[in-house]
Specification:
Immunoglobulin-like; 34% strand; cytoplasmic vesicle; five-stranded mixed sheet; phosphoprotein; transmembrane helix; six-stranded antiparallel sheet; 16% helix; calcium; SNARE binding
């Protein structure tokens, strides 16, 4: 006895609900199918004997430490450093930009400063030091590196497997061994920077780690160069640079399958760039108050560091050294999207006058990156370890003209 109007409404409601449920189920199934065939949203996958490490899972430092404890337990070194090394190589993002520098820094000067290196010995990227005791003309055997190159056509991905190294030199005289690891970069863009885990106390390391780089068309392989930097980890100072391997892909054809390669590790050739830009700084010393004021004024003509090649987001890190020991470090604010930043930020340090001859100040101009590892644009050292005549003259004027601010432009060198 239901009226036709009520029956019509009930039928229409059932029809609308049925269509809505059908459309929802179809949409969910379609999205799942798209995810299975979609290129992964990350730049590379790190494979260590079947274990995949995805960059998006490494963004939380607490999570990294928790995974390390679960995997490593109370043991040290070895495979337990894998996730932390991957995060430090740029997967977990850069350091947070500084909120602002404090005005006064009291230097914790002590009588004994250990074995930490002075800034003039840290001339290689990533804070590494060159440590080959031989002269440039000597033929030093640095070992060999074995790796393989492959290409995944469906994913447009370059696959590089770092397998092992043989005959590495002794870098730790105490243990008569080394703690080797390898940093790898794809040149010339330097967009992909990765590194292996550290293997403890061995001269014959077996890494067996695979890095898969997505978004590299096969037609561009001939223009790329693989750069392997072989280092030895040092817990108490900067890591030792053993050597490097440069492999142009113009002579490698992975189209038919994996290509196995063995290359000799060569002594690193530190080439200075034509121009890294200039930095203007001001120094003054008050002998009565025994206080030094360092002012980072501005920079100009900085090289383009962004992937797009349009600009940079620079800031300046100031390191103060006493002899062989770094005793203070501060940072300026980040200046967005400019190659000619104006900082005008000052730092004040309490330094006794008798210590001035042993003080060095290192300025690192760094390009801030939100999604990848920060990159050093250029470097300047003033003071006891100044590497240029202009830097030595600036420091001499500071010492001879107390209570007077001395401002000068300096060319930046490669870090």
């Amino acid at each position: 006895d239901v009226s036709p109007v009520v029956a019509g409404l009930i039928g229409a409601t059932v029809l609308v609900v049925s269509v809505s449920v059908t459309v929802f189920v179809w949409t969910c199934c379609h999205q799942q199918a798209e995810k299975k065939h979609k290129t992964p949203p990350y730049k590379f996958i790190h494979m260590l004997k079947g274990i995949s490490i995805y960059p998006e899972t490494l963004s939380n430092k607490k999570k990294i430490n928790r995974i390390r404890r679960d995997k490593n337990g109370p043991q040290e070194g070895g495979r337990g450093n894998l996730l932390l090394d991957a995060a430090e190589s740029g997967l977990a993002g850069p350091d947070k930009a500084p909120e602002g520098p404090p005005q006064v820094e009291q230097l914790p000067i002590k009588a004994d400063y250990g074995d930490e290196l002075s800034p003039d010995q840290s001339l290689t990227p990533g804070g590494s030091k060159t440590s080959s005791p031989s002269s440039p003309g000597d033929d030093v055997l640095l070992g060999e590196l074995t790796f393989s190159v492959d290409y995944n056509f469906p994913k447009k991905a370059l696959v590089v497997t770092i397998q092992e190294a043989h005959g590495l030199p002794v870098m730790d005289e105490h243990s008569q061994s080394s703690d080797p690891y390898i940093k790898m970069t794809i040149l010339p863009d330097k967009r992909h920077r990765v590194k292996t885990r550290v293997l403890r106390k061995t001269l014959e390391p077996v890494f067996d780690e695979t890095f898969t780089f997505y978004g590299i068309p096969y037609s561009q392989l001939q223009d790329l160069v693989l750069h392997f930097l072989v280092l030895s980890f040092d817990r108490f100072s900067r890591d030792d640079v053993i050597g490097e391997v440069m492999v142009p892909l113009a002579g490698v054809d992975p189209s038919t399958g994996k290509v196995q390669l063995t290359r000799e590790i060569l002594k690193r050739n530190i080439q200075k760039c034509i121009s890294r830009g200039e930095l203007q700084v001001s120094l003054s010393y008050q002998p009565v108050a025994q206080r030094m004021t360092v002012v980072v004024l501005k920079a100009r003509h900085l090289p383009k560091m962004d992937i797009t090649g349009l600009s940079a987001d620079p800031y300046v890190k100031v390191n103060v050294y006493y002899g062989r020991k770094r005793i203070a470090k501060k940072k300026t604010h980040v200046k967005k999207c400019t190659l000619n930043p104006v900082f005008n930020e000052s730092f004040i340090y309490d330094i006794p006058g008798e210590l001035l001859p042993d003080i060095s100040i290192e300025f690192l101009v760094i390009d801030f990156e939100r999604t990848t590892k920060n990159e050093v644009v250029g470097r300047l050292i003033l003071g006891a370890h100044s590497g240029s005549a202009a830097g030595a003259e600036h420091w001499r004027q500071l010492c001879q003209s107390p209570s007077k601010a001395v401002a000068k432009w300096h060319s930046l060198s490669e870090y």
